[in-house]
What does this fold into?
Amino acid sequence: MKIRRIALFPLLLFGMGAVAFAQENPKGKPGINLSLWKNVATQRTDTIGSTFLNVGIFSAQNCLNGLGVNVIGSVTGRDANGLQLSGLSNMVGGSMRGVQLAGITNVCGDGLAGMSLAGLVGIVGNDACGVVAGGLANIVGNGSRGLFAGGLLNIGGEDAAGIYLSGLSNIAGGNFKGTSVSALLNVAGGRMSGLQLSALGNIVAGDMCGIQLSGLGNVTGGTARGVQLAPANVAIRAKGLQIGLFNYYNERLDGFQLGLVNANPQTRVQLMLFGGNTAKLNVGARFKNDLFYTILGFGTHYFDFSDKFSAAWFYRAGLELPLYKALHISGDLGFQHIEGFKNKHYGLPARLYALQARVNLEYRLTDCVGLFVTGGYGGSRYYSRNAGYDEGAIVEGGIVLFKY
It folds into this structure.
């Protein structure tokens, strides 16, 4: 019991002194603020002066121009300039110029120029310039310039420039200029200049100038100048390069599309049904533009009908030209994956791949129906070793359905 009394004695003495000092200094003159709690301090909260040194458990002051260190938190009614360090939270009603460090959250009612590091959330009501990092999220009400790192989320209300890093998503309400990297999604509500990198998708409402790289899709609501690289790429207008499995532009393309399917509003999607001496029965979807086309399809059986079930998936890309009236000629190159399934138990390969070249003659009976015959050459090879399985001529014929 004696030890406890001795330990509490300095704390009680400090509190009594703080109250006495506040009573003797009703105007709360600027200087040192030693604080147990909000009004148990050497400076009253209604002071019009400023504090150059604040040490306490939980403190409140008008302005801070210097150092503030608190066990729990600190509240500054107006501006703060210097260093704020709190175990839980720092709050500034006006602008903060300097460094804020808190275990949970930092809040600036107006702007921030400097650094804000919080264990969970960093919030700036107006503009932020510098470094803002939060274990969960960072939120800036207006413009932001600098480095913003959030464990889950970064949100900028208006124009943003610099580097955005997050574990989940980066969102800029206006224009963005710089680098935005997230594990899920990057969004710019206006224009974007720079780099967007995400595992899922990138979205720009306006024009994009730079690089969009994602694991699923890139979307640009205006003109995409630069490179879009993802399984799916979409732009209203494209000036540059689109690389993906599916590429789409709505109005104009001044560049190049490299993908399994390249589409625009004038692309016609047609159904192809045909048979041949490789895969016996086939169905395919042809994505046809004025000259170029791509085909994705499936066929069975690759081995003879007498064998166990086998199948082939194929992709072809080519060019078509008119010969005479309704007669057209086309040529394409293709890749085919061949799956043997249970045939591997009967001495046939489990899987193969084939490279093929074809020349096609197509006659359009109506605007929605056509007939075609194909001649070509191809060879199949093993995936597991550098050796061929077979090769030979390709002969096919079939029907095309839907509008040309």
Observations:
- Residues 2-263 form one domain.
- The chain has one helix and 31 strands.
- Helices lie at 2-24.
- The two ends are 96 Å apart (CA to CA).
